[in-house]
Amino acid sequence: MSSNTQIIINQFGDAELLAFQQSEQPQPQAGEVLVKVAFAAVNPIDVKTRAGLGWAAQHNKNNLPWVPGYDVSGSIVKQGAGCLKFNLNDNVSGFIGFPLRAGGYSQYVCVPESELALMPEDISLESAAAIPLAGQTAAQALEKAKIQPKEKILILAGAGGVGHIATQIAVAAKTQVYATCGTDNIDYVTALGATAIDYTQPDWQKNLNDVDVLIDLVGGEQAIDALCCLRPGSRVVTVPTITSSLVCEKANELGLIGMGMLVEPDITQLEELLHLISAGMIKIKIEKIFPYQDVVQAHHKVEQGHARGKILLNMQA
Question: Quick count: other Cβ atoms within 10 Å of Cβ 255?
Answer without folding.
Answer: 11
